[in-house]
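My main concern about presentation is that the manuscript never shows what a single data entry looks like. The format is easy to grasp once an entry is in front of the reader. For illustration, here is how one protein appears when written out as sequence plus structure tokens:
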Amino acid sequence: MVPVKMSETPSTNFSMIHAASSEGQTSYPRHYNVTQPVVAKRISFYKSGDPQFNGIQMVVNPRSFKTFDALLDNLSRKVPLPFGVRNISTPRGVHSITKLEDLEDGRSYICSHRKKIKPIDLEKARQKPLPWQSSRPLSARRRAVQLARVKEFGLAHREIPGMVQTPRKLLVFKNGDPKSRHTIILSRKITQNFEAFLDHLTEIMQNPVVKLYTTDGRKVPSLQGVILSSGAVVAAGREPFKPGNYDLLKYLLPDHLSRTSKRIYPKGQAKPEGRNGNWKISVITSELPDAGTSSQIYIVLYGHHRSSAPIYLYGTSGNAFQEGREDIFTLKTGDIGELHKIRIGHSNSGLSPAWHCKEIKLQNIFSGEKFYIPVCRWLAQDQEDGEICRELPVFQKGQQILPVTVYEVRVTTGERWNAGTESKVYISIYGEKGDTSSRQLFKSKNPKKFLKGQTDIFFLEAVHLGYLYKVVITHDGLGSGNGWFLDDIVIKDPTTELEYAFLCHRWLDHGEDDGKIVRELYPSDNSTFFGRQKLELQRKEAWAAESWKLKKGNILQFYNRLSGGFVRLHPDGTVDALGEKTDKNGLFDVIVKRGDICIFQSHQTRNLSLGLDNISGMATGMANIGVPCELRVLYLPNRCTILESVMVPGHTVAFNCQGKVADESTDSYAGLSKEFVIYAKGVFHNSAVVLLTTSLCQALTLKSDGSCNGAGNQSEESHWKVHKISPGVCMFESVKNPRMFLRIKKGQCNGRGTGDLDCHFKIQKNLENGSISLESVKSRGLFIGLLPDGQTKPVLYTKDASIFFYPQVIQFGREKPTGTSATASQQEEKARESGNQGEPASQFMAHSPVPAPASTEICNTSTNDRLLLSDDEWWVLVLTGNTGTQANVTLWVYGDKGDSGPLPLGKDNREQLFLPRKEDEFQVQIKNIGKIYKIRIGHDGTSQQPEWELQMVTMQHLKSRKTLHFMANKWLSRTQGNGDIVCELPVEEDGKAIFPIVKYHVYVYTGQLKEAETTSAVYLCLHGERGDSGLRLLHKSDMPIKFQQGQIDMFQVEAVSLGKLWKALLLCEATDLSQYWYCEKIIVREPIKESEFIFNCERWLPFMSQGIIHSEIELYSQEMQINHQLKTQEEANEGDWKITVVTGDFEKAGTTATVFLYAYGEKRSSGPIILGSGKHRLFNPNSADIFKINLKDIGELYKIRIGHNNNGMDPSWYLEEIRLEEIATGEVFFLTVDCWITENEDDGDACKEIAINRPNKKPLSLVAYEIHVYTGSKIGAETDANVLINLIGTRGDSGKRRLHQSKNNQVKFQQGQVDIFVIKAVSLGELKKVLISHDGTGPGNGWFLEKIFIKFKEEEEEEDQKVLFPCDRWLDEYQDDGKTERELLAKNGQWIIKVKTAEDSPETGECKTTVVIYGSKGKSKDLLLSPRNPGQKYFLPGATDEFLLLNILFLYTLETNGELKPLPMFLSLSMDKEEIPVLGSCIDP
């Protein structure tokens, strides 16, 4: 950017704009009028972005070029550009030349085929390249001369002048046309950045190249992906990938094989080149079906001297390596010594890469030796062991043949959060007899590879390598999660039965550790040493994480894992481990002696300390006399400690399971009796600053966007300030981002809380491991949990490590807050009410991605009002130019430790602020942001006078009087200047800005999809190494209408240099479905540095995820790790299922409602899972929508329920099919539905249940439940509300269903009326209860329900089952107990039988009494009489006894009017099968 100096007062003179030359030493003016044109001009023309192009020197005069277009046509033939020369600009691209008169004699210009040029270093371009710097291939004549010189003088290859070592080659195919291909050299010239590389491919392919794909269709998003690719890419424009037979020829081999491949011609075309190392090779493909391959075959020969390079067997006929074919080649390897093994493999490319090799024949042309090598193996990832290369030993007479060995490779991923990876992992094993080459670890015994804490077992086949001395492990950096924390590798050699252990315990991640993704590992001497080495490393990490507790002044408690109690030191000196947490005898003060040696003095009895008796070795209380009380604290990997005597090593503090001191010493550190969890007192006192560590090296971190992650570093970003609400209940406020509190709200866990009830957490202490769990006070039962990638998510309590946090105190707080017991948010609210009121947060402020800190207060005070000054007090003086504003003005201040957040600059008398040529003063508090390097100031564009001319901002530190001046002289207006209402100003030192102001060029690509355009407001915030740009409205495009389908809009965002960009926040404020916008990607270019950053989006905005509409999305630069995911997405985990929902293929089949799903397993149900809404382009006619859901721990799936909320303009939905696929096992269930889900079609139900057809199990039947609802006869019993019912049985529930279609009445739920409904559900087993409720809508919303009677018939049963649910209560907010929902239990035909015994009856002893009941429809079986009061004697003379009978509902009959009445009946009573007369008995239902 060219700075323009502006005067402080308006001037009528025109400023001359000077553009610096490319060398940065001279400048020249742009002439608007050429008064004395030069007749003949000598001009130099260079190529845009190509410093290797030496330029074209031309003489331009009116005779040679009559028009400017003639000059462009001439240059197009001389300057190699894909679409010719279409633009000529000055070297820095500041001015475009549009006519011949603008060209100046002796100047240099840049040619480009685009409107925008890429500046180059003219000094470098003017230098003639030396011969060895040339990237052009040597001519045939020159190469022949060199070869002749080699023969004449015997020069070695490396001594030939002008010989260029071949860089890596890349094969580029045209998308959809495999026959159109080009080979390019990956040189530094063309790989400066990804855009330059695409431009180079555009020139080579003579077609626009916008995207790159791998040969199997995966997108290559960056230069890193190109370099890590397998050697070939497919170049495409804006169209999608087109599959084809992309033959990789001789160039495809993982780049971990560093040798150069050689092209080998079929026999008859080869030219012998010497006597030694010439081989004839015959490769025979099997005759099995599909044995041939479309892939490219290579071979490596291993001799006793060395191995050959990978040699590709390339045939010219195009049909090599097909079924039953023998292919013969000749090749030259040089002198490799006696051959002892070969490796043959392929590139796994093309449509059918699998290959079955039958045999290989080799003949040494010089010696005549022949070798026959039978293979008969598949080389295919979907056959046998999944290997695509084979190693085969070669038999030499007199030599021992090496065996083929299948090595077992055990790879352990670390326990760090986000430790797993989805990248392709490669390993090379090195031994004394060779190496395996780079092999992909493809088939693991686990369903998903390289998960956190998981050990994956692979089998790698190779000719025996002898003693192993090294492995090289790496990954390709591709995939959604490409970082990886590798713990160790153990390789078992079955031939020698030796195990080799390779300890890593490091990241292979561009964004972690040292940034490397390749590790060389060397084996430990033996397994014992390896185990000890690994243990010591883990102990070292545990000490670093837990040693903060052993600081002087801390008060500790020791929890014994065996006894389950706390260690107590009694005043008499006795010790036990039976204490409660509140026992004062269990408190110990820390006295640090040295390192890990401490004395633990009783906090209650100061003259005693915990020690070990030297003779018995048992724990006891000792006087504070030094060494006998000194204990060494040894940390274990599980964060537990062992307390060992310093005087007698091996003696440890131990307790038995009864909590008594152990009566013998031990020499080992194992056993729960000796393991203690150390607790420090006062961790969660008010105002304490803590880390919530998630592993030994990671902690819960708050990102600037408010999201939380458990995989963060234990740095300042992970510090949380504790606000104690009540005993055991706290809030956690970010120290780095004040006023941002940890919270659980609306199914999400983040740091966007404001201090309300959503931010209150109950601290649950897990004594066994010293961790805590944070339970939401508002949403009881929900805890903060972590996904494998470290993202936070509300979860139910489990004993899984995902909810365990290990607190670490950075700064201790106060046990009781001083002055008041109010919470932080309450105190701030009171302060705001009592102090001067600032203006409310404006819309512009709400758009800022950084919230205001709790410590910031804004007021307008005079000098006389100053009180005691703190280090955080600043004056802010704002000088307005000739035009003032009445809009809301906001200031941001950035330092090297953080930023202030938005500071509203306001007063009560707002009309008197920011008047023309006036200076306004404000006093602010800014805490902990470090050295200030820039400010941002702007307004929200509101009020009748939003335009503002800002002249200067001055900041003065009140205590030190340090002053910072920020010269602005800018318009903050949508109609003036650059159209922006925000500007950034850098701090200047010695008259020079610390960081320059950069005009970022932002290219926004709107997709090609139908209706992709939008007229909604779009905002962008760029994040870099030095903060962010703030959320900016993309206002002024280079196109007349912004964001049109398939259009590229260019905007400028002016900001103080952000350094390397890594993230962009994109926001689209669409309020209507028609205004939704499909963004393909965003490219940000920094013109001066010629750097660019690509942010792929490829989705609609706003979008719905997990039932929540998101208007903003985070996009991560491809220059960074490409595994960054959208914040609403999650990785595939255990229990993940892929759900495909197929909507019918006719016009009205789609729905506008929100669709939900329930899944039922043998253990539990999933609860409601929101799939999405038809309003957000889901569930359209003839479409298949795919979702990923997690059904972990629900057990074996036996049914699902799918439905919608019946909302929207057209909620009716025709569901055709549901496909469920368990991702881990690949098991798929096809569920045919083929019916309407709507209240207006079919059975009128807005949800459907479908049974799962499980292997070896009969699916449950679909049962029609006939529900008779009895409304009471009381006055006002009827209701107009919507009534909902949920049937609950032994096999789950039916879900809440609306009773809206009565079979027998047009008007439902009237006084004294019986309504009959039918709902269908997968068999619920025995009905236990129903939940009945209503929504309280309608003019008469109270309801008196008498009872519910349900009648149904299971599939294999002959008779109907009937269940009664009595109620006789109101469901009314103003009646009874005010509840509108009732839980009704099944009566199941309960009867009370009263039996009166005669006065003269003899007493009965203990006997079994049964009864048989006879009715008009039959009799019951023998029913055992159970006394209502167990234990008492019954059938005493003259006594009346009551008994309870169950399940005799068959005695009821259903009358035609719907009444339920008992049948006439009598009963027979017997004792021990002896029938007795019944006197005066009665039966009460």
Remarks:
- Helices lie at 68-78, 122-126, 140-153, 194-205, 223-227, 527-546, 824-834, 843-846.
- The chain has a mean pLDDT of 78.
- The two ends are 93 Å apart (CA to CA).
- The first helix runs from residue 68 to 78.
